[in-house]
Design goal:
Layout lengths: L4 H40 L2 H34 L2 H35 L6 H30 L4 E4 L2 E4 L2 H6 L1 H32 L3 H36 L1 H7 L19 H7 L21 H29 L7 H9 L3 H17 L2 E3 L3 E2 L10 H32 L21 H14 L1
Antiparallel strand pairs: 1-2, 3-4
Helix pairs in contact: 1-2, 1-4, 1-6, 1-12, 1-13, 2-3, 2-7, 2-13, 3-4, 4-6, 6-7, 6-11, 6-12, 7-8, 7-10, 8-12, 10-12
Length: about 450
C-alpha cells in the first residue's frame, strides 16, 4: 500500500484507538461487576464481598485512568488529520461526542469520587447508588460512541445541504435498527471480557493456593456470568452479520473471501457446499454476492476482515467452552481441584480483548474505502495540507508515549493482581474532596508501612 498521508493517518488512528479500546472495554464490564458485588454485600452483609470489591476497585481505578489518558487524543485527531471529515460530518458527530461528555463523563466524574473516597462518608445505599451510576456512565459512554460509529457504518437520519451532512432525524441516528444490534453486541463483549479476566484471576489464585475464599467467588461468579452471556453474544453476532449482509455486501464478501458470486455458496474456510448460503442467509440455496460484482475502487481489503472475523469467532467459542465446562465441573464439585482446567481458564484471560480488537478490525477495515459508508471516501476525508512527515512525527510520538504509559499502567495492574485482596479497607483519615490523592496513601500503609515495620 502506498505510503501517503491518508494511509499513515489511518494507521495512526488505528493504533491509538486499538490501544485505547482495551481499557474502556474492560472498565465497562468491571464497573458493572463492582456494582453487582457491592449489591451482594449490601444484601447479605458478607465481608468477603467487601474484600473482593475493594480489590477490584483498585484495578478499576488504574484502568479507568488509563482509558481517560489514552482516549484524550482521539478527538484531536479529527482536527489534525481528518479536518474534511470534521467539516462535513461535524453537525452529526460533534453533538454525539458532546452528549458523551455531558452524560457519561458527568456521571462518572461525579460518582467515581464517591466510590474512591466516600465509603465511610455516605450511607451504604447511597454508596451502592454511586457504584450503579458509575456503571451507568460507562454504558452511556459506549452508547454515544457506538451511535457515532454505527452512523458512519450505515448512515441514517441525515440530509446533505451545501456539501455538509446534517441531522434530519436524531431518533434514527441514535436508536436506528443498526444501533439496536451493535450496541448490545459491544456491551456484551465488554461484560465477557471482564468475566474472563475475573475468572482467570480466581483460577490463578487457586493454582497458587492463595486468597482461596476470594478466588472461589471470582471463579464461580465469572464463569457463571460468561456461561449465561456468551449465547446471547453469539445471537447478537448473528444479527450483526445480517445487517452487514444487507447494508454492506462488499464487506460481507470480503469477510467470506468470496470473489465470485455463488448460488448456493460454500463456506470458504472449510469449503462445504451450500454451507455459506445457510450461514449468511439461513437458506441452503441463497445467492451470495462476490467481490467481482463491485468496481475495484469500491472493494475493501480482504485479508484483515477474513482472518479478523474468524479469530473473533474462535475467541467466542473458547469462552463458550471454558465457561460451560467450568460450570459442569462446578456442579460436580471438581472445579477447584481440576488443575489442567484452571490453567486453561487462566490462559484464556485475553480472549475477550482479542475478540474485541479483531471484531473492530473486521468492522473498520471492511468498511473501506469509505469513512462514512457510501457518502464520503476515506481518502477524501483527510486534511488537505497534511504531509507525510507530519503524520510520521505524530505517529512516532504516540507510539513512544503510549508505550511508556502502558508499561507503567500494566505493571502496576500486575502488582495489584499479584498482591490480591487484602484485609477490609478502613477509612482514609486525611482524604477529603480537596485531597483526593490521599487515596493513594493506602498503598503505602498496606505495603511500604509494613516493610518499614518489618525492616
Amino acid at each position: 500500500m502506498e505510503l501517503d498521508p491518508a494511509f499513515l493517518s489511518r494507521l495512526q488512528f488505528a493504533f491509538v484507538i486499538s490501544f485505547h479500546i482495551i481499557f474502556p472495554a474492560f472498565t465497562i464490564g468491571l464497573a458493572a461487576w463492582l456494582a453487582t458485588i457491592e449489591g451482594a454485600r449490601l444484601a447479605t452483609g458478607n465481608v468477603l464481598y467487601r474484600r473482593v470489591f475493594d480489590f477490584w476497585l483498585k484495578v478499576f481505578a488504574v484502568s479507568f485512568g488509563m482509558g481517560v489518558v489514552t482516549g484524550i487524543v482521539m478527538a484531536f485527531q479529527f482536527g489534525t488529520n481528518w479536518s474534511v471529515l470534521a467539516q462535513k460530518t461535524g453537525p452529526i458527530q460533534g453533538p454525539l461526542l458532546g452528549y458523551e461528555a455531558f452524560t457519561a463523563f458527568m456521571l462518572e466524574a461525579t460518582f467515581f469520587g464517591v466510590m474512591l473516597l466516600g465509603r465511610e462518608r455516605v450511607s451504604p445505599w447511597f454508596y451502592f447508588l454511586a457504584c450503579c451510576m458509575v456503571s451507568l456512565g460507562t454504558m452511556f459512554s459506549s452508547f454515544w460512541i457506538l451511535a457515532n460509529n454505527s452512523w458512519m457504518q450505515v448512515p441514517l437520519g441525515h440530509t446533505i445541504v451545501d456539501g455538509k451532512i446534517i441531522p434530519a432525524d436524531w431518533w434514527a441516528i441514535t436508536t436506528g435498527a443498526i444501533m439496536r444490534v451493535r450496541w448490545p453486541h459491544m456491551l456484551l463483549a465488554a461484560f465477557l471480557t471482564t468475566g474472563m479476566c475475573v475468572s482467570a484471576t480466581g483460577a490463578w489464585y487457586v493454582l497458587r493456593g492463595v486468597h482461596r475464599a476470594e478466588a472461589r467467588v471470582m471463579l464461580h461468579w465469572g464463569l457463571g456470568l460468561v456461561a449465561v452471556l456468551i449465547p446471547l453474544q453469539l445471537f447478537f453476532g448473528h444479527l450483526t452479520g445480517l445487517y452487514v449482509l444487507k447494508h454492506q455486501p462488499a464487506k460481507f464478501a470480503a469477510i467470506e473471501a468470496r470473489w465470485k458470486t455463488q448460488e448456493p455458496a460454500s463456506e470458504v474456510l472449510i469449503a462445504i457446499p451450500k454451507l455459506g448460503s445457510f450461514i449468511a442467509s439461513g437458506n441452503w440455496t441463497a445467492r451470495e454476492i462476490g467481490l467481482e460484482t463491485f468496481p475495484p475502487e469500491d472493494r475493501p481489503p480482504v485479508l484483515v476482515p477474513f482472518f479478523g472475523f474468524r479469530i473473533m469467532v474462535g475467541m467466542g467459542l473458547i469462552m463458550l467452552a471454558v465457561s460451560w465446562f467450568g460450570n459442569f465441573l462446578r456442579l460436580r464439585g471438581q472445579l477447584e481441584t481440576t488443575r489442567w482446567f484452571l490453567w486453561g481458564t487462566f490462559l484464556a484471560f485475553p480472549t475477550g480483548f482479542i475478540a474485541i480488537l479483531t471484531g473492530w478490525f473486521t468492522a473498520e477495515v471492511g468498511r473501506q474505502p469509505w469513512v462514512v459508508y457510501g457518502l464520503l471516501r476515506t481518502r477524501d476525508a483527510v486534511t488537505p495540507s497534511l504531509a507525510i512527515g507530519d503524520v510520521l512525527v505524530s505517529l512516532a510520538g504516540y507510539v513512544l508515549v503510549y508505550a511508556v504509559i502502558a508499561s507503567f499502567g500494566v505493571y502496576y495492574i500486575y502488582k495489584l493482581l499479584r498482591e490480591g485482596p487484602t484485609a477490609e479497607a478502613k477509612a482514609i483519615p486525611r482524604a477529603t474532596g480537596s485531597r483526593p490523592m490521599a487515596f493513594a496513601g493506602t498503598a503505602d500503609s498496606a505495603t511500604g508501612g509494613r516493610l518499614r515495620t518489618e525492616g
